[in-house]
Amino acid sequence: MDEIRVKNLEVFCHHGVYKEENVLGQKFLVNIVSKVDTRAAGKTDELELSVSYGDICRCVKKEMTKQNDKLLERVAERLAECILLQFPLIKEVEIEVKKPWAPVLMHVDYTSVKIKRSWHKVYIGVGSNLGEREEYMKLAKEKVSALPDTKNFKSASIIETEPYGYTEQGKFLNTVYSIETLDTPAEFLDKLHQIENEAERKREIHWGPRTLDLDILLYDDLVTEDEEITIPHPELTKRLFVLEPLCELAPRGIHPLERRRYSDILEDLKEKEK
């Protein structure tokens, strides 16, 4: 990915733990590396196909001076979020916030915090088979599409399916969403659980009936070993009601572990279940 760089942007503002820092203020230097595909702009010389480094600088200055923070970590996080939300063409940003006048009572050139943040593509499995199924599916779509720090929400078609695993229950409505988020998997899963709670989801029987079920199926090409969040979802390749809507959104998508297209996995599963 191409890069647009800003080096040592100087901003005078008020951040720090000590009272004097918040009263007197001090100089900060900011380095920004924005990952952007600049090929179209390079071929056409059209500004709207790239990102103005002047606009990036003005965004950073405005964000740094609008409030006082104690930690450079907080400043850097706000700057990364601001840039990614304001400039849709930027896929990833690296921010370094330098503090040349750090009050450490020793000589240092500067102290700094450097972070890297980016958009992440997430696929979400959605299901409901209890109560007003259509209303719960409508609630899920409204809430997930409106989550903060997200963009490019898409929904596959809703299908009705037989229950999986625990079969003594009603039919499900199922679909898959895709969305881009700035959240980590844990942060995003927490937001999904909050939506399930709004739908009064009860976890009483494994694979049992539920008003609303929201599962992270995929998060970029991430493969986790986390006990709380297993990505890719371990049942993804075994479920027609997941693969069918997933293939609608990502017809040429490739499973990060099996290295096979979801469409091929779907066709094999259909053959097995004939």
Automatic annotation (TrEMBL):
Pfam families: FolB, HPPK
One GO-annotated biological process of the protein: folic acid biosynthetic process
Signal peptide stretch: none
UniProt EC number: 4.1.2.25, 2.7.6.3
Protein origin, superkingdom: Bacteria
Reaction catalysed by this enzyme: 6-hydroxymethyl-7,8-dihydropterin + ATP = (7,8-dihydropterin-6-yl)methyl diphosphate + AMP + H(+); 7,8-dihydroneopterin = 6-hydroxymethyl-7,8-dihydropterin + glycolaldehyde
7,8-dihydro-6-hydroxymethylpterin-pyrophosphokinase domain mapped to chain residues: 206-217
Record keywords: ATP-binding, Folate biosynthesis, Kinase, Lyase, Nucleotide-binding, Transferase
UniProt GO molecular function: 2-amino-4-hydroxy-6-hydroxymethyldihydropteridine diphosphokinase activity; ATP binding; dihydroneopterin aldolase activity; kinase activity
Pathway terms, separated by semicolons: Cofactor biosynthesis; tetrahydrofolate biosynthesis; 2-amino-4-hydroxy-6-hydroxymethyl-7,8-dihydropteridine diphosphate from 7,8-dihydroneopterin triphosphate: step 3/4; Cofactor biosynthesis; tetrahydrofolate biosynthesis; 2-amino-4-hydroxy-6-hydroxymethyl-7,8-dihydropteridine diphosphate from 7,8-dihydroneopterin triphosphate: step 4/4
Summary of the function given for this chain in its UniProt record: Catalyzes the conversion of 7,8-dihydroneopterin to 6-hydroxymethyl-7,8-dihydropterin.
Family: Belongs to the DHNA family.
Protein name: Bifunctional folate synthesis protein
